[in-house]
Amino acid sequence: MSRIVIKVGSNILTRKDGMPNFTNMSSLVDQIARLIKKSHEVVLVSSGAVACGRGAIVPKKELDSVEARQLFSSIGQIRLINLYNQLFGAYGITIGQILTQKENFSSRTAYLNQRACMITMMENGVLPVINENDTVSLTELMFTDNDELSGLIATMIDADYLIILSNVDGIFTGNPADPESKLISEIKPGKDVSEYIQATKSGFGRGGMGTKYKIASKVASEGIGVKIARGDRPDVLVDLIENPGQVPHTNFVPSKEGLSTVKRWIAHSSSFAKGRIYINQRAKEALLSESAVSLLPIGITRIEGDWAEGDIVRIYGPSDQYIGVGKASADSITAKEFLGKHGKKPVVHYDYLYIESDDRL
Ligand code: GLU
Q1: Which among 103, 160, 155 is positioned nearest to 133, based on CA atoms?
Q2: Predicted model pTM
Q3: Does the beta carbon of 146 sit less than 6 angstroms from any atom of ligand 1?
């Protein structure tokens, strides 16, 4: 039995005319029902609210992008969830809706609260269907896309797999439409294939292959298997779990090391940072080494921002390159006071530190 987070993109769930794609939706629901019957636990992250709202209304005046997102998602989300409710209901599966936003993950308390909600639903046999709440999310505080949200959820609930379904089979060595391009079927931990990723994005969703790749690599490095595949292939979900050799996809092999739950939260929190800490070369080398090293005031050269103990801070090296992120164990006033001094307590303890620098690879 596995715990599986499935993220489905707008291009699979909606048609070009802004109506739900009934064929794809019912096929995916059939497959999820089969997985649940085999005792797998499933959490569904479903996009498509905005795309699906477009087919339901002609706005009375021209809307800016925020107004359009709010209006369309308010209508489209109901259509989608109603359809899911009917389709899953036919299998006797009870679904529950979670509409969330980035702020609900921004502090440890909020994160644990969101986690507890999902766990309670699952313990009670309710299938969570999750989307970002596009009616209230502020543009500057939004998830890049639902790929980012699904990565956060997969790590949060200790999933065994994250499956990202889009309208291509996975990551190719060039433009997927080009017959010369080949599908990359496996990406091992630490392998960088970003040179192949196309900058363009297709269709209605917010994300593109760039964010999918970034999120997939990160989630796999945290010990969770990630698969990117095409959502309208018959039996794609069941095959990915039971006969992965049968279905074209890109498989991100999970790292064996994994991460503690708290480090996973920190790994996905860098956009919530309240401050910046700049460190010297020696401290940088110590943090990038394989040993378990905390960030001490002696290695800090300057700080920016006002933060409280427990807030997230970003860490930068001597030439201002981003190194990682951590939960501060001292507030910014204390950190400033002890800056450059010997014998003081860590400003970020190793247990709450996540190194993200490419220099380590
Ligand atoms: N939350 C958006 C929607 O449901 C989708 C975001 C994305 O494309 O990833 O329409």
Answers
A1: 103
A2: 0.89
A3: yes
